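ingest -> fold -> write
write: protein_1
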Amino acid sequence: MSYQPGYLMKKQLTKDVLHKKLSGVCAGIAKYYNLPRLVVRILAILALITFPVATGVAYIVAAMLLPTRSNR
């Protein structure tokens, strides 16, 4: 049985400081789920308007806890 090299690599959710606007959380989420950064940012703004406290707390916690992505 043979494995492809990329098969065993594990994905990790990280902040993307290369494409960040505030702290890189939305850019990191977009990269992890392979979505456009603009879509994730628009969804984050809509969530902030709909649920301001929960979204704000979640964003701050994610900004503090997510590791920074290395230059890949």
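write: protein_2
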Amino acid sequence: MGKYDKILQKIVHGRSDANILFSELRQLLVRLEFQERIRGDHHIFTKEGVAEILNIQPLGAMAKAYQVKQVRQIIVRYRLGLDDD
């Protein structure tokens, strides 16, 4: 299992939302083929087929817990990067 598979599983299972590095969350969204636009410290992610727009900002080096939760909801709702077990 690769690094980003582990991060994806950590996010999906809802463990330690406050302990996700912003850079890892950002890279995960890029790997899930979201398009990124940056305005100041706001990183805005969109993806074709996903109605919601994700707007995330760092809190120091970490991602904000409520934004990790928003990302989890999108990943689960659209089954992004999840294998059918």
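write: annotation protein_2
The longest strand covers residues 50-56.
The CA atoms of residues 20 and 45 lie 17 Å apart.
pipeline exit 0
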